Amino acid sequence: MLNSFVVPILASVSSSAGGALGSGLKFDLDMVDWSILSIYLAFVIGIGFALKRQTKTAEDFLLSGRSIPGWITGLAFISANLGAQELIGMAASGAEYGIMTSHFYWVGAIPAMVFLGIFMMPMYYGSKAKSVPEYLKMRYDERTRVFNSVSFAFMTIFSSGISMHALADLLTALVGWNYYGWLVVTSVIVLAYVLKGGLSSAIYNEVLQFFMIVFGIAPLAYLALKNVGGWDGLVTKLQASPLGDGSIHSWAQTATGDNPMGVPWYGIIFGLGFVLSFGYWTTNFAEVQRALAANSMGAARRTPIVGAIPKMLFPAIIILPGMIAYALTLDGASSGYAIPAKLDANGVAMLDSAGNAVMNYNQVLPSMILHYFPNGLLGLALTALMASFMSGMAANVTAFNTVWTYDLYSQMAGGKKTDRQLLNMGKLATIAGIILAMGCALIAAKYNNIMAILQLIFGFVNAPLFATFLLGMFTKRSNNAGAFWGLLIGTSTAVAFHGLSWVTGNGPGVKGAWIAQVFEYPKDLSQSFMVAIVAFSVTFVVNAGLSLACKRNKTDEELAGLVYSLTPKQLSGQEAWIMRPAVLGTIVMIAAIILNYIFW
Amino acid sequence: MDLRLPIGIIFTLYGLILIGYGFFTKGGEMYSKSLGININIIWGIVLLVFGLVMYFFSRCGKNKNT
C-alpha cells in the first residue's frame, strides 16, 4: 500500500473498534442495495468455484501455472493496489492537498510501472523465479532471501490486518450490524475464493473488482462536479480557499516546500517519484506476482504497462471528489455539504487554533457518497468499497502463501518437498494467513498506536529493497555481502531515522521522534520522503561499497538472465508493433507527461 | 474460463436492476440527493451497455480464447 505511510488511515478513519465514525454518517440501505451486494458476493465465490477444476497442483494454486492473458494480469496488477485504503486515502488527500495529490499517480506510479515492464520484467519473468525473494536467492544468496521473505511475510499479514480492521470499522459505522461480524464475514469470503481457485481466482476476481470499483465510484465525480459548477467553478472556489493556487497546480508552487503538500519539486521527484514509487511498484511481491502469472514474456512485460493506463486516469474519479468536498465545505451551509469534523474522546468536534473544526479527511469519500447517491447507486458504491478491500486483501494473502510455501517452508527440514506437500502447505498458509491477519486487526482495534508505528515503519521497507534490486539487476559487480548488509543496515537506519525525525507540531510518539527529537520537518509527507531517501541512500552506499571492496561471488555465466547486461534482449515476437512493451511504455510515459503539463 | 462472460453477466444484471429500480422510484424524493437527476436510470444504462459489450466479446472470442 503505497499510501499507507502517507495517510495513516488507521488512526483516523475511526477512533476505536465499534466505529466512532461520527454521528449521522450512516447508509440507509434498501432491498435494492442489499441485492446488488449479494449478487457481487455470489459472483466472487462463484468464480473461485469455477476455477477449482483447473487448480490441481501447487504450481496451479500458488503461481497460476503461468497461464493468464496479459490484459487480465494488467488489470489485476492495478486492482491489487486499489485497496480500500487507497480509495479512502487518496480522496482524503485530494481534499487536503488538492491537485498535487496527482503526484502519487503521474509521478509516483506511472514511471515505475513502465520501468518495471520494460527493464526489470525480462529478469523477473525470464529467470523463472517464483517470487521476489527467490530472485534474490538466485542473484545473491539464501540469507538475503530469508531476510526479505520474513520481512515481507510479516508486512503482508500486518497490512491485511490493518485494512481488515479499517473495513470492518467502516462497515459497522456505515451499515450497522457488528464489528466482529463484518470482520469474520469479509475474511471468510476472501478465504473461500482464494482457497478454491488459488492465485487464478484472486487475479480473476481482482479484474471483476476493478470494474466494480470504477463503476461504483465514478458517478460521484460526475454529480459532484455538476454541483460545484463544473471545473471552472471548482477552480474559482479553490483559488479563493486557504489552500490557494497550490491546490489547483501540481508543480507551479513547488519551487519551495511552501505548498499544500509541504514538499519542494526535488522531494517530489526523488523522494516520491524515485525512491518510494520504484521501491513499492518494482519490488513488492503482491504486485510483481500478478505479472509472473502471465502466459508469456510479452504479456508479463505488458502487465504493469497495461495497468498504468487506468492508473493514470484514476485521479479523475478519486482525487476530484476529494477536491470538490473541500470546496463545498468552504462554501458553508449554502452547499449543504461539509467534511465531517474530527471528534475528541467525548464526541465533541475538535477545533484548531483559529476556532474552525478540524476536518476528518478520511471521511471524505464515505460522506460524499452518502451526500450524493440515492439508494440503488448507494448499494453499488458500498459494493465497490467492499470489492476494493477484497482485492487488496486477496493480493496480500496470495503473495503471503507463495512466499511462505516456496521461500520458507520448502527450504526447511532438508529441502525437497513433494507437490502434494507444497499444495497442502499453500492451502494451510492461506488459512493461517487470514487468521493471523484477523489477529492483527483485533490488535489494531485495541492498541491503535503500536500498529500505527509499525504501519509507518513498513512504509520504508521497500526503499532499501529497491536499492538492492537496482544494483543487483543492473550491475554484475554487486555481491552477496553487499546485498545482505546493505539491506540490514539500510532498513535499520530507516527505522532509527524515523525515531529521530519529527513533524512540526507533533510531539514524540506514533509519527516519529520516539527515540529523540533531532530532525524536524514541516509536514508528514516531507518526513516520509526523507526517511525513504535516507534508507535508500544508506543501502545503496553499503551495497556498492562492499561490492567494490570484496570480490564477486558469481561469474558471468551464473548471472546470465539475472543481470540486465547478461540477459538476451527480447526480439520482437508475434505481437503487433503497438503491443511491444517499449512502444506501449513510451506512449504511456508521454501521456503522463502531457497530464503533468496540463495541470502544471 | 473467459472472464468476460461473468463480467458481462454481472454488469448486465446490475444495469437491469438499476434501470428497473430507477423507473420504480421515478420522481422520488431521494433524487434530490443526486441534484434531481434520476442517476439510477442513467448509470443503469451505462452498466447495461458495458455488460452487453463484455458478453458479446466473450461470445465472439469463444473459439479463440478458452
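Chain A touches chain B through 30 residues (CB under 8 Å).
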